[in-house]
Specification:
By secondary structure, chain A is of the alpha+beta class. Chain A is built from 20 helices and 18 strands.
Chain lengths: ~575, ~575
């Protein structure tokens, strides 16, 4: 993986094939001149402090691991210093690395993990579990080490599907496996986990579980927490082992103490997951709704009629316009909207082109089920005024579904902030939350003196509500780029909490969402997490500074009160 | 509620209407003479120690509550001394009450609960939260009070559905409401929770959540933990409050720290639950399978084809025979199996009558959905050799679905042990677990020198497995009744744990399942629960002696090692 951005070195965002995208971005962001490319610094320019090695801990490491399981190379330390949040990438591109781990350890067995965690607890060494390294909430940055050695415990070598129980549809899987390699192994046994987050290519099973991840097929397969039957987590107090049973009434659910623990209690080494036989048919479709409200009603009706598609992705007008600009060269591929369709939309259906909303829906199952399901959903969509665009926009979505982080890098290189914030709430609060957040976001970005791009989509639906996933962009003002970003980010999170939503639906807390945690789970809820921390990690060596907020919630978050005031005064 | 048995005083098991039941029971249990009725002792005969009143706690109580919220009457103390497990009822019927609460307090608001819990923690008074009082795992008996005052905190006056969000299908409900009263209030708003455990009439929302309860419609509506969106729990460390959102990624899931906590961390005062619009159609059907294995295959296939009925209840041959004996007088109601059907089963289908298995399946939804769903399931059942018996057996099941605890009392009155133990496991282990447990049970009951009744049913199904619910009965040997019961109970639980299942699917741990907890959730899992306890209830006043096992797991459980040996030697 690139140390300065998303994806493997050499893989870049293919803007060439999307000729309308960059002109559209420039227009919407008010960019008149071609911006100067801001390349990342040279690796050599980054100054890292010498690794701080704890000799007694190192002795243990040497006695239990092979040499090639331990790495103190600069590049490896830098790769493990951060996740891939906007803030992370913005800093790393500029060579700002305050706290790289002193050493990267590659665990190959649970015994390795146990030995390392035990020694770390004994000799007061920080352990930061590391999966795919793609977290965007600050889960991976060393915080509060206070002079202690910091170890990034990379799990990627524990990458096996250990066994598949075909009769029960379960699979025992090592936590370090990345999405594609896991699916490959499961597919070979005729199975799929059905978990495809946007970060799929660069995220691990353990990471998904530790952060309560959601994949784009969650409406059918559930969030990751719905798929875990059993797991093993090594903590400084011993190893938690739960049983492979579908459900239980054995007191407090121990799986749920590990799920979402973001590395602060221990290292998840494996899990037994519910898996599914691969479906016979599967396809993606596009629809156009006259406006966001109609789309939301249609999504809600699908849930009420108990027939949500396997994927529902309703874009608001802002996101829809971006999708249209995203279309690939028409060589060989039909554009989303033919002239004929456009005329029909405008003159026959009389849709307002500023309000148009694109819906992508996907279905799967055996032939009969697939057909029936699609038919039901089509009827509901039609009722709310949708036009069926067929498979082209759907398949285009499928091809580009992992693209966004590459586009973010492309934008960042050109001095553009592009980021996302997502949440969930109940149906009755969904549209009020949507409007309020859009309004706050627009105001905040204008307060920075910039022109906003704003978009939102719904991509996870539930009986009682749905997610909202906001995308925002603006050109940075040189000299105060990160302040602007943080100010806008704060605005979104404030709006989530103020409007009855949660701080994140599937991106975790890390330290970047810490200031909103107490309002989300209550101060006694925080005490419960602290209690678990004291009991399972009494010496406080596991990934400190995450999930448990400091007394002053914004201390260490990065945006002093006076800067917020500055931005707000600018507007007056 | 009766202090000596199940249900309201005056309500008895209606054996008259089931003329074949008692003769069948006598035959199967080897009872040749009509047994002597063993009535419960007179209430007056029960010796209770004087209430142990903590004066400083009482001062607070007097200052915050009305007089009629506090009760030290003997009968009320006795009603609150136990739940309704076999062991509880066996003792109470004989007047054995080791530790009745010193006082019963009726909370009417969350403020009441907060004041009581705070004062209890300050003045070292035990609080045992009390909902419907129908728990059968020993969750309600005072343990480890060590001379401290014990208060049963009865929640039944907090019985309101506070609000229904029709658009989101959520309802904010006070924790003390009993099943029927809650459904009445929800029904008035066109809604249902869809949670109907066997104890429905005498159990509360708070109790369901605290014990991870499952209702008979869980295949459609989920277990109780799947329905909780948000809750409030008063702990000695403060009140946990979570947000009403469908899902989140806000660290460790705080709802799941409260769900299943069985009163050891705090008192659940309300929850916001996912509710559903009441279905248009709904009906129950009966089927006969040639044997249990075919039935299991059919159940599994329904899950695999993603079409499990709203209720699936597959009885094994033992339980099927009991159901047949259960049929009501034929006046007005057709018997389950007409002579014609019997002949068809025997001569045309050539089913072995000793292997016959009754399946009850129920469907609901709008007319179309109802019809299509039934059709799909019928086709699957047919494939595995089932005969469709129509609605008669299904509706008979529906009428009698809350009967079993009354029958248990009827049996107990006649010197018969009748009890249940249930679990879940994955599909691949389901039949091995079934055979192994039946075998162990049979052997254990024979070791007591008695003739066993054994039956089992499946009533909750999942993608990866299903529940097994065992019913067993035998005549007690006077003088060692409870030892026999405990010996048999231990055998079942040992078999669950040995064969890869969990200690309970939906009956909780209490102290009656404590000896198997560590093997179920691992010793580090127990440490996690202890950590929560230390953090949220630092003075240890909340329902001690539950969920956290003692060092010697069988200490305090009631069956010394030498008695087990005695039973096992008897058999040689």
């Amino acid at each position: 993986m690139k140390w300065w951005g998303w994806g493997a070195e050499g893989t870049e965002f293919d803007i060439e094939s999307k000729p309308e995208l960059w002109p559209y971005m420039k227009k919407i962001l008010g960019i008149t001149e071609e911006p100067k490319i801001i390349p990342p610094v040279d690796l050599e320019q980054i100054a890292l402090s010498e690794p701080n090695i704890n000799p007694r801990f190192s002795e243990v490491v040497k006695s239990v691991l092979r040499e090639d399981q331990v790495n103190t190379d600069k590049k490896d330390r830098i790769i493990h210093a951060y996740g891939k949040s906007f803030r992370d990438l913005w800093r790393i591109r500029r060579g700002i690395v305050d706290a790289a781990p002193d050493c990267v350890i590659y665990a190959e067995t649970e015994d390795d993990v146990s030995s390392i965690v035990k020694a770390a607890s004994e000799f007061n060494v920080i352990i930061i579990p590391f999966g795919g390294g793609s977290n965007i909430a600050g889960c991976l940055e060393a915080k509060g080490h206070n002079g202690r050695m910091v170890v990034s415990l990379d799990m990627k070598r524990m990458d096996k599907v250990l066994s598949v129980d075909d009769e029960s549809c379960t699979a025992r899987i090592q936590a370090g496996v990345m999405g594609p390699h896991m699916e490959e192994q499961l597919n070979a046994a005729g199975m799929t986990l059905g978990h495809f987050p946007d970060s799929f290519e660069y995220s691990s099973l353990g990471g998904w579980i530790a952060t309560r991840s959601a994949g784009m097929q969650s409406d059918k397969y559930g969030k990751i927490e719905d798929m875990v039957l059993a797991l093993r987590m090594v903590t400084p107090a011993g190893t938690i082992v739960t049983r492979t049973v579908p459900k239980s009434s054995n007191g407090v659910d121990i799986n749920h103490i590990c799920i979402g623990s973001e590395g602060i209690l221990g290292v998840i080494t494996e899990a037994t997951m519910q898996v599914h036989r691969r479906p016979e048919c599967r396809d993606f479709y596009g629809y156009l709704f006259p406006d966001f409200e109609s789309g939301v009603k249609a999504v809600n009706m699908c849930v009420e009629k108990e027939c949500p598609p396997m994927i529902t992705r309703l874009s608001d007008p802002g996101k829809t316009a971006l999708s249209f600009a995203y279309k690939t060269k028409s060589t060989g591929i039909k554009p989303f909207l033919s002239k004929l369709v456009k005329a029909y939309i405008k003159h026959v259906k009389r849709f307002d082109s500023d309000k148009l909303c694109l819906m992508i829906a996907a279905f799967e199952g055996d032939k009969k089920k697939f057909r029936e399901h699609k038919k039901k959903v089509n009827a509901i969509y039609k009722k709310f005024g949708a036009i069926n665009l067929g498979t082209d926009p759907g398949r285009s979505f499928e091809r580009s579904k992992y693209d966004f982080p590459y586009l973010r890098d492309y934008a960042m290189e050109r001095g553009i902030v592009a980021d996302v914030s997502e949440t969930t709430t109940v149906w009755s609060k969904l549209l009020p939350l949507y409007y309020a957040t859009l309004e706050s976001l627009e105001k905040a970005i204008k307060n920075t003196g910039n022109k906003p791009f704003l978009g939102c989509h719904i991509s996870h639906t539930y009986h009682s509500g749905a997610s909202l996933y906001f995308t925002f962009g603006f050109t940075e003002t040189p000299g105060r780029e990160l302040d602007e970003y943080l100010y806008v980010k704060k605005t979104v999170e404030d709006s989530f909490i103020k409007n009855g939503a949660t701080l994140s639906h599937h991106h975790a807390v890390g330290y970047e969402h810490l200031p909103w945690l107490e309002e989300d789970i209550s101060s006694t809820g925080v005490k419960a997490v602290k209690a678990l921390k004291s009991g399972l990690d009494p010496n406080g060596v596991m990934n400190p500074g995450k999930i448990i907020p400091p007394k002053d919630p914004f201390s260490g978050w990065g945006l002093p009160e006076e800067k917020i005031k500055q931005f707000e005064q600018n507007n007056k």
